[in-house]
């Protein structure tokens, strides 16, 4: 009887440990890499920073609208720079998004290391902006794209959306494979403080 009780005790302890390991593993997967949060300085940003010793920047408190309804991708790490009319943001999507793409376009086998999308920013007046710089990263089942857009004056528009379009799409009228709001005038602005990594990059 004592042996059974001891065995059950050890099994219970092992179960608790497994739950904690799984929890921390899950948190590690979900945490965005630090390089996907950085500024991606442009020459314009460096010029302002060199002249003023600072760079005005703000972000917005992210809400549920930053995730597409179908869960195909979401945006994070938004930085808006009004002095240079630039915007930096990260798109993240998992392998489930690639599987959905393969099913929709009958692509067969998908290579998660390959780029299947083009990205652009769409403002409330229908203007499109292609990224000036894109940094890619893959972590576990997730793909990241850190992008900088220029010529974006947020004071002119009520909202901005990030869109991803399949590179093999031939119909110019077809809606993008995914789109999600990245900025809205109704959302709350919050100051963005330059990190030490941002400041070092601005001085390069």
Please, could you describe this protein's structure?
The protein has 204 residues and is α+β, with helices and mostly antiparallel strands. It has 2 domains: 1-31; 34-202, Immunoglobulins (Immunoglobulin-like). Helix content is 28%, strand content 31%. It contains 4 helices and 10 strands. The chain has helices spanning 2-30, 43-52, 95-105, 196-202; strands at 58-60, 74-81, 86-94, 117-123, 128-129, 133-139, 142-150, 159-166, 178-184, 189-191. The strands form 3 sheets. The protein has a 4-stranded antiparallel beta sheet with strand order 2-3-7-6. It has a 4-stranded antiparallel beta sheet with strand order 5-4-8-9, with no helix packed on it. A two-stranded antiparallel sheet has the order 1-10. A hairpin with a 4-residue loop joins strand 4 (117-123) and strand 5. The chain is globular. The relative contact order is 0.20.
Shape: globular
Assign a percent range to the helix content. Answer: 25-40%
At CATH level 2, the architecture of the largest domain is Sandwich
Residues in β-strands, percent: 25-35%
What is the CATH superfamily of the largest domain?
Answer: Immunoglobulins
The beta-strand count equals 10
Radius of gyration: 21 Å
Q: Report the sheet with the most strands, covering strand number, pairing sense and barrel closure.
A: 4 strands, antiparallel
Task: List segments where confidence is low: pLDDT < 50 over at least 5 consecutive residues.
Answer: 20-29
Q: Order of strands side by side in the largest beta sheet?
A: 2-3-7-6
Total tally of structural domains: 2
How many DSSP H or I helices?
4
